[in-house]
Design brief:
The protein contains no helices and ten strands. The chain is an all-beta fold.
């Protein structure tokens, strides 16, 4: 059974930074593209960023381009999302999963950005 554990969220002021982590257990994941998603109350999960299977290519939602950076360490079964120049509209619970949302969702990690 695959388990996803997100961590690293917190409360920061606008302009601040956070580094989110996603630990994948239960299987290796170096054959999957991995996405970060985020969700706010009353809205569905939205795509934030994607890493190809080896981290060689990344894609970003337009509003986070130039501010967020995704990386992965396949040897450690870890995925990361560096969040810089945070804005209040980035406030959400952040989740990781495969690009096809193949695995059970983790609990997410809360990011709160104050103005």
């Amino acid at each position: 059974q695959v388990k996803l554990v997100e961590s690293g969220g917190g409360l920061v002021q606008a302009g601040g930074s956070l580094r989110l982590s996603c630990a994948v257990s239960g299987r290796t994941f170096d054959d999957y593209a991995i996405d970060w998603f985020r969700q706010t109350p009353g809205k569905g999960r939205e795509f934030v960023a994607r890493s190809s299977w080896n981290g060689g290519t990344t894609w970003y939602e337009d509003s986070v381009k130039g501010r967020f950076t995704m990386s992965r360490d396949n040897a450690k079964n870890m995925v990361y999302l560096q969040l810089n120049n945070l804005k209040p509209e980035d406030t959400a619970v952040y989740y990781c999963n495969t690009d096809r949302m193949s695995w059970p969702w983790g609990q997410g990690t809360q990011v709160t950005v104050s103005s």
